[in-house]
């Protein structure tokens, strides 16, 4: 996909001005539009890095989660819970990783209806290589230094708390 030409102005700032003139001030509109655009930019950057490994960022996240587990395997329901995605998305993601030989699935002996997803040695190798590459580009955040990345995390945390992503201590 060709890179779009840079505009000679900030379209989000311009939209904020037009919004204010029509409906009144709404800093939230500019914030959400900026966050959504940042999401597009970051996802394109990380997907470009993991694509040569046959991954999307969602598949990469699933591999990382499996490497973090003690046994290298987790119930599909736990994967969905930890990644905060719908069960259908988990099934789709894991099935694609299975077809790529990076994950296997088997019945969960502790849950008659459940399924365990397990990372393979090839999955570990691909995950490690993709991680090195992603770290090499600062996960798409190369425009920011370490402190600014921590600030971004801190700024977004209350939003995540309010959405009940987790319980804050």
What does this structure look like?
The chain has 169 residues and is mainly alpha-helical. It has a single domain (11-162), classed as Arc Repressor Mutant, subunit A (Orthogonal Bundle), CATH 1.10.10. It has seven helices and three strands; from the N terminus they run αααβααββαα. The chain has helices at 11-23, 27-50, 57-68, 76-83, 87-99, 121-136, 146-162, and strands at residues 73-75, 103-107, 115-119. Strands 1-3-2 form a three-stranded antiparallel sheet. β2 (103-107) and β3 form a beta hairpin. α1 (11-23) packs antiparallel against α2, α3 packs across α5 (87-99) and α3 packs across α6. The longest helix is centred in the N-terminal third of the chain and has 24 residues, at 27-50. It is globular, with a radius of gyration of 20 Å. It starts with 10 loop residues before the first helix and ends in a 7-residue tail after the last helix. The model has no long low-confidence stretch (mean pLDDT 94).
Short summary:
The chain has one domain (11-162): Orthogonal Bundle (Arc Repressor Mutant, subunit A). The protein is built from 7 helices and 3 strands, in the order H-H-H-E-H-H-E-E-H-H. The chain has 169 residues and is mainly α.
């Amino acid at each position: 996909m060709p890179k779009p030409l840079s505009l000679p102005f900030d379209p989000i700032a311009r939209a904020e001005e037009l919004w204010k003139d029509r409906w009144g001030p709404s800093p939230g509109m500019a914030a959400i539009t900026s966050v959504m655009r940042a999401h597009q930019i970051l996802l394109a950057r990380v997907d470009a890095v993991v694509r040569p490994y046959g991954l999307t960022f969602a598949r990469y996240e699933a591999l990382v989660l499996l490497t973090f587990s003690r046994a290298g395997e987790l119930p599909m329901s736990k994967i969905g819970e930890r990644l905060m995605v719908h069960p259908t998305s988990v099934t789709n993601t894991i099935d694609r990783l299975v077809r790529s030989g990076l994950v296997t699935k088997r019945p969960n002996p502790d849950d008659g209806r459940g399924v365990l997803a397990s990372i393979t040695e090839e999955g570990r190798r691909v995950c490690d290589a993709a991680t090195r590459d992603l770290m090499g580009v600062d996960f798409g955040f190369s425009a920011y230094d370490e402190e600014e990345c921590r600030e971004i995390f801190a700024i977004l945390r209350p939003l995540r708390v309010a959405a009940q992503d987790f319980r804050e201590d």
